[in-house]
Structure formats: structure tokens, C-alpha cells
Amino acid sequence: MIKVVKPFWSYDIKKTELWLSEMAKKGYLLVGLNRWTSCFFFQQGKSKSVTYRIGYEQTHGFSLSRTLVDEGWTEVIKCGKWYIISNEEPIEQIKTFSVRDGIIKRNRTIMYIFSGILIYLTGIAIFNLSLLISSLFQDVPVEVVPSPMWILTYSLLVFAIAIFVLSIYSVVIIKKTNKYLTSEKTSKLQSGKHTEGRLSKEKEKQLKLSGKMVVKRKPGWMYSPDRLEEWLENMERLGYNLYRVSRTGTAFYFIIGTPRNVSYCADYQNISNESYFDIHREAGWKSVFISYSFLQKWTIWSREFSQEEERPKIYSDKLHHLKHARKVAFAYTILFLPLVSMYILYLVIFIAGMLNNGTSGLSLLNMIMYLFCIFIFGSFTVRTWLYYMRLRNRYDFQL
């Protein structure tokens, strides 16, 4: 038996699975895993062609379903919430695989944590750099006081740099892994769109030059999704038929055609599984945009209806719709409020320094920069709560 230590193996699931298959081809078959020490244990035997699948069950224990057993999957390891299954059938003959939602959720939580650390450390670095630059351009002499505990000071600095690098590495690798894990599911979900009729870039360029296609940009629509829905529906009534939305979700491509009655809904979900999309598609809705960002999970739905029909709604229950709007407001408040608080603190410190040491061009520039950041991030938070208040007032009036 051999032991192999593989740090951060859970960050890149696909790479780990391929590595396990390569080990099996060399005659080393997986028999154990210690998730705390990241140690994999192998038993030497005959060379085999094995497909491995790593999974994570967050809420309940894993057990092989009858479908997976019939497909040739067998359980190799169950370690805490992690499990590894294997299949010795040729990969092209395997039609059924275990789901990945547990890993995607876990990865997203880790990314939120490391993203918060990145924002915090970046803010501290910017603040200290601003103070250093500001002091260099002032006439006040700078005195460097040696630290009485220089070993601790430099150790903390090295530790902070290590955490910063680890955070960047974690966010980049986990984002790449989540993109891979959701690629197959996303391609299936995107099947509800008219991708088969997608025009080439040259054809789009010709339509733009002829005036038959227009592009409108709506950055920040997710902070007021009801405004976006109203705008899209008005565009359809004017004969501007939505053709597609850019990958970033900020550019909307319209083909000038005939006026239509189309209902739109911008829906926010923490994580969207296949059943979420299947339910809406069975009800006649089409997904015209699905966000790829790990911080914002938005889907824009559309459904055409006739003049005689009542406007269809995804949220027919008013309380459910209000809870959704409140969830949006809370999500962006949690995201942006710490940033606003941090910049307010920096602004107060800068103003206090200006009162004591006088003003300079650089200090005024820093103050303007902090005011701008407070305004931008604060407006995002305020707009989400205004969206919630508009919805609540509308439903109170209807009741």
C-alpha cells in the first residue's frame, strides 16, 4: 500500500478524477482517503481502465441508486460527506453519472469566504498605500519607528501575503472547477433557447449596419429587476424583439420585427438545479439569459402570450414574490454593506488626517475616490431595497 498526499485535491475535481484514473492504469487502485490530511491510499494490483467520480452530499449520506448500479458504478470510498465511485465500463458507454450540486454548493461557500478575505486584505493594502503615497507628497517629515517585536511584525506580514495568494488561488481554481461542473448542465439548460437559430457574427454585423438590429445596454439591472422586466416588455410592444443577451448580461440585442406580448421575469436563485429549469420550461417559459457569475445567479425568463390571455407570471403567489425580492435585497446588502462601512471608515480617517496635517491634491483625490466608492456601492444596496418597497406597495395597493 502506498500513500500520496495531494493538497487542494477538492479544488479541481476533474483533475483529481483523471489522476486517480491514471494511477489505476499504472496498477495503483484507490482503497482509502483521509480528507483531513489530503492523503490517498492505493493498493498495488493489476492495471485497469477505471473512471472515477467524486461527489459531496451536504445534507444526507450518499447511497448508490439503482440506476447507477445498473450502469456499472460501485462505491469505492465514503469519507464524511465525500464519496468516490468507480466504473470499469468504457467511458463512451457510460450514460448516467452522479449529480454535482453538493460540490458546487460547497465550492460556492468557499469562494464567498475567500472573496471576502480578498476584499478585506485589498482594502487594507489600498488604505496603507494611500497613506504612504500621501505622506510622500506632503512636507511633513516621515519618521519610521522600528518595531520592538520585528519578528512578529514580519511574520504577520508574510502570513497576510500567504493568505492573500491562497485566496487568489482558491477563487481562480474553484471558479474554474465550478464552471466545468456546471458546463454539461448549463448546456442542457440552455437548450430551451433558440440556439439552433443563432446568427453568425458576420450576420449580426450586417443586421446592425442595416439598422435591423439594435443593441441596448443595461448595466446594474439586477439591482432593480422589476424595471428591467417593464423595459423589456415595452420594447416588445414597440416591435423590438429580444434576440439574445450578452454573456455578461449587460447588452441586450433586439431585432426590429413585429410588436408582441411577452412576459419577462428576472429571477435570482442561490443555486439552480435542473428541476428548477425543467419546471419553468414545462410551463412554457424560455430562459433568455443565465448568469455565469458565482456571486450573482440570475435567470431571465420570457413567455409570449396572446392579446386575449392574461399576462403569465412566474411568481403568482404575492407573498412568495415578496420573499424573493427581500432575498435579493438581503443578498446585496450582505455583499456591499461591509464595503461601504470600510470606505466610510477610511474616509473618516483621511478627513481627520487632513484636519491635523492640512490638505494636498493627493489627499483630496483619495477623499473623492472614497466618496465615489461609498456612493456606488451604497446605491446598489439602496436600489435593491427600493425594489422590495415598490413590490410591497404594489401588492398592498392590490389587496
From TrEMBL:
<keyword id="KW-1133">Transmembrane helix</keyword>
<protein>
    <submittedName>
        <fullName>DUF2812 domain-containing protein</fullName>
    </submittedName>
</protein>
<dbReference type="InterPro" id="IPR021359">
    <property type="entry name" value="DUF2812"/>
</dbReference>
<feature type="transmembrane region" description="Helical">
    <location>
        <begin position="367"/>
        <end position="388"/>
    </location>
</feature>
<keyword id="KW-0812">Transmembrane</keyword>
<feature type="transmembrane region" description="Helical">
    <location>
        <begin position="110"/>
        <end position="137"/>
    </location>
</feature>
<feature type="transmembrane region" description="Helical">
    <location>
        <begin position="149"/>
        <end position="174"/>
    </location>
</feature>
<keyword id="KW-0472">Membrane</keyword>
<feature type="transmembrane region" description="Helical">
    <location>
        <begin position="328"/>
        <end position="355"/>
    </location>
</feature>
<dbReference type="Pfam" id="PF11193">
    <property type="entry name" value="DUF2812"/>
</dbReference>
